[in-house]
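Section 5.1 Outputs to date
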Amino acid sequence: MANARVTHEDGRVAEANSTAIGTTPGQVGIIGGGMAGLTAALRLAQAGHAVTLWERGQRLGGQAAAFPVAGTYLELFYHHLFQSDEAITALAAEVGVGDNLVWLPSNVGYFSEGKIWPLNGALDLLKLGFIPLHDRVRLGLVTAYLQRVRKWERFEHVTADRWLRRALGQNAYDKTLGAQLKAKFGSYYDQVAMVWFWGKIWLRTTSRRSPLDQEKLGYFRGSFNVIIDALAEACRAAGVDIVTGSGPSEVRVAAGGGVELVFDDRVERRDTVIATVPSSVFLRLAPSITGAYRDTLSKLTYEAAAVAILQMDRPLTDIYWLNIADPDIPFTGVIEHTNFVGPEHYGGSHFLYLSKYMEPDHPYFALSDEDLVAEYLPFLKRINPDFDESWVKRWWVFRERAAQPIVMLDHRKSIPAHQTPIPGLYLANTTQIYPEDRGTNYSVRLGNDIAKIVRDDQAAGRPWPTPAT
């Protein structure tokens, strides 16, 4: 009976009895309780594996998690579904909450030059008075073209900045799509691949039958917690052990095969481990990984996000999703949730998100919650001159350091393999969702995919098909 010496982060050394840490074939550990981790846990448990899932936070669901408010729940970060989101709608039906998914009309606006411009279809494009008519026509033609492109590979090798500037002309670009790129990606705006922007345009078209129709988006009555809770319950019913408020500090090769997970007070072993954490977190979690694979992960970049949620006694606007094109306004979007899901579902209160994407070292990311809200509130008067801070009854601030992977040129060549250099250790995160952007639907698809990869590799009697580097 062998013992393994484990050195903790603070230098303590502990003895771990290798016969007490689990060596049964088919034991799987999953790190991260977002939609990808939960979906993978369910699929592997359904396939007969013994699965344990660890989530360091107290909430499951990742960026789709919700918190209690106004007698119901609301997402920490705004969420909705598109009508093309088949993976999550199928999962909702499977876990018994398909009837809770409703499709609601949505409206979009654009704030520029002190005015809200509706932007819900081709006719609204022609009414964008802050650019000349010929620029509006050009913008409409470019949008219509992108909606019809299916061979997205052509956009992998050119930046959105270059392609759109050339397609729209300087003036239209600067005042419309270029302004949105700068608001979204800050100093990275001119490095983002056009394939990312194409995905955004194409996705929105799938929620309309024609350019003249009003967009419809999906939402779960009672918040995305409805599907998260149902998915977690399905996991437990299938035998998954879900542990919240805890997670390993390190993963490494186990002496006898498999993967060791190092906790503060113990070491556990699993035949297979799937990490569904951001690449930067994974680098800290697996310090023994070196070489080309580590270099690939190190080059991946994320945008951070800070969101302030305001509970108000009246609406700010009549728009659900308001893009901000004014560079002086410190937030990049106003998402007025109760213009999508009515205030009657929240005891008559109105809720809106003030969203800001930024580099992780941006000063706003380090501001106190109070200072961030104080910075944001005065600018609401630009959007609605009648706004008064007395309208705000409560507020919350939530932050995410790895909110948005930045898709740069030839991103496909930069996607890390799911199979890492540690045999039995897999990585599944949002940088591997491509060419689509991250979202709950694609996280569910990623969970399905990584579970299949694990099953296929185990059925073939190998850690993975080819050696990872």
